[in-house]
Design brief:
By secondary structure, the protein is α/β, with parallel strands linked by helices. It contains eight helices and seven strands; from the N terminus they run ααβαβαβαβαβαβαβ. The structure holds S-adenosylmethionine. S-adenosylmethionine binds next to strand 2 and helix 8.
């Protein structure tokens, strides 16, 4: 994701009602924040928010949270939400390493879309499916762990399959060409770009009881 210095990014984030400004205080209480008992789905590394906004509009009976570590990127999502009132959507600006400190067994599905691949071996632990993050995800999932991943990057995809399987996840569904699958699919910003270039998208669904 290219980072442009967005003027007023902090101000835009600070003034948005979509943003959970004190995510640590809601640990274990996110249902209360949404005011209903609907399941909560989380996207980590949501970028400019196309996917999570579309999902929230498409599935009003699911609560969606988009998490992203940079204010300058989150404010792009906030700009897309101007004049929209989407009650089942919240955004959080934080590093995914903090997930265990902001959620307590309340997430039912985690989306990892076009996560940074970190191709160098010495950076492998930064991948969002590395064995640094999988124990953190154990703390946030409600009854069982469900991860849905999409990526153009074969190296990241292969390392995810190894890491998830080694950690006890069962890969329930997998494909190397998402565009040719007959399923409902909300595009992310990166996905739209890659598809327009004819790049094949890998996807998987992995579950751990
Ligand atoms: C390649 S972009 C993909 C954005 C979007 N998911 C898409 O598909 O268009 C990866 C995003 O993940 C965010 N990200 C990477 N590591 C993160 C972390 N540890 N915590 C939160 N966000 C992270 C980056 O800032 C970036 O916006």
């Amino acid at each position: 994701m290219r980072l442009r210095n967005v003027r007023n990014a902090k101000e835009i984030v600070d003034n948005s009602d979509y943003v959970v400004h004190n995510p640590f205080e809601y640990k274990g209480k996110y249902k209360g924040l949404f005011g209903n008992e609907n399941p909560i789905h989380l996207e980590v590394g949501m970028g400019k928010g196309d996917f999570i906004i579309n999902m929230a509009l498409k599935y009003p009976d699911i609560n969606f949270i988009g998490l992203e570590k940079y204010e300058s990127i989150v404010c792009r999502a906030i700009q897309k939400l101007e004049n929209k009132e989407i009650k089942n959507l919240k955004l959080i600006v934080i590093d995914a390493l903090e997930l265990g400190n902001i959620f307590d067994k309340e997430i039912e599905c985690l989306y990892l879309n076009f996560s940074d691949p970190w191709p160098k071996k010495r950076h492998a632990k930064r991948r969002l499916t590395s064995n640094v993050f999988l124990p953190i995800y154990d703390q946030i999932f409600k009854d069982e762990c469900l991860i849905i991943q999409k990526t153009d990057n074969v190296g990241l995809f292969e390392s995810s399959i190894v890491s998830l399987s080694t950690y006890g996840y069962v890969i329930e569904d997998i494909s190397l060409d998402l565009a040719n699958k007959e399923i409902e699919n909300s595009l992310t910003e990166y996905e739209a770009k890659f598809m327009s270039q004819g790049t094949k998208i890998n996807d998987l669904k992995a579950r751990k009881k």
